[in-house]
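subagent[fold] <- orchestrator: predict structure for attached chain, return tokens only, no commentary.
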Amino acid sequence: MTLGQNPPPPRPEPGATPDVPPTDRGKMVLAGVLLMIPIIALMWVPSYAKTDPELFGFPFFFWYQFLWVFLCSGLTWTAYKLTLAARPPRTPRATDGSSTAGGDR
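subagent[fold] -> orchestrator:
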């Protein structure tokens, strides 16, 4: 340690996680499944490598992939909301008596 540096903070006990709220694993798994659905659906090309049925003159191959743009957006948004719900907000803890992140406004 050199002069002018503060010593590092003490490490927590093994297995102890201070200031970290528990995470709902079920919601996190569901979010992961929702994110995997478009990957699997679009990588399974033989399922949509055909021209029929057409929609407004567009072959199935094209409109099916375009439909997944919107489906993927919805699934990603839902997975994001599930992730937020699975992780409750942390409670800021000031150890030195100063204000927390962002200061007073």
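orchestrator: received. Logging for downstream: Helices lie at 25-43, 60-86. The mean pLDDT is 80.
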